[in-house]
């Protein structure tokens, strides 16, 4: 004798099957390459990029409303071989790095890196050095003798530590003056090394009191 199903039971069965299919589809979506948990996450406010064993960490510009500021970053060399930081400059128009730039300034100058800076194996280079003098005047040549007054806009600590026998080894680099970039903008820069491949990437511009204990206007 053939078995027949009531219309109500048939509808319930169909709805249950549809729900199961939807659950499987949603699970598949969340496991795709676009799932939030699989996307790169950068906790630092600056930009993190790499070229081989050279790791650029938390690179950003701290500037005032007139577009006068200073570059801040830490470059970690986890290689067994020495390298050099040759230049940091605004990337030529049309340079791509896979990111969509926001409000980009047209003409940004980076001054102060007058000669290649050594990147010793398993050490970190801090830009600027903790004893670098404050930038008194945009475009001025940094003093060869560091001032006793430390920089008023400290660089955030690196998110990586060198893989040295004594982790934390750090060298101080020059103060790099940046003009033409205002807070809220993004600057596409090209970082050139002596041996490692150059990097083109966007870096953010923040207010020069961003890391101050008492930012202007909050007093």
What this model shows, in words?
The protein has 219 residues and is mainly β. The protein has one helix and eleven strands; from the N terminus they run αβββββββββββ. Strands 1, 2, 3, 4, 5, 6, 7, 8, 9, 10 and 11 form an eleven-stranded mixed β-sheet that branches. It is globular. It starts with 6 loop residues before the first helix and ends in a 12-residue tail after the last strand.
Q: Could you give a quick summary of the protein structure above?
A:
This protein has 219 residues and is mainly beta.
How would the blueprint of this fold be written?
Elements: H1 7-30, E1 47-51, E2 54-63, E3 68-77, E4 83-90, E5 109-111, E6 117-119, E7 123-127, E8 170-172, E9 177-179, E10 186-193, E11 199-207
Parallel strand pairs: 2-11, 7-8
Antiparallel strand pairs: 1-2, 2-3, 3-7, 3-9, 4-6, 4-10, 5-9, 10-11
Derived structural class: mainly beta
End-to-end separation: 88 Å
Strand content: 25-35%
Rounded to an integer, what's the Rg over CA atoms? 25 Å
Give the averaged pLDDT, no decimals.
72
Order of helices and strands: HEEEEEEEEEEE
Number of discrete helical segments: 1
The percentage helix is: 10-25%
Poorly predicted tracts of residues: 21-42, 134-158, 214-219
For the largest beta-sheet, the strand count, sense and barrel status come to: 11 strands, mixed
Any idea what the shape is? globular
Question: Strand tally, please?
Answer: 11
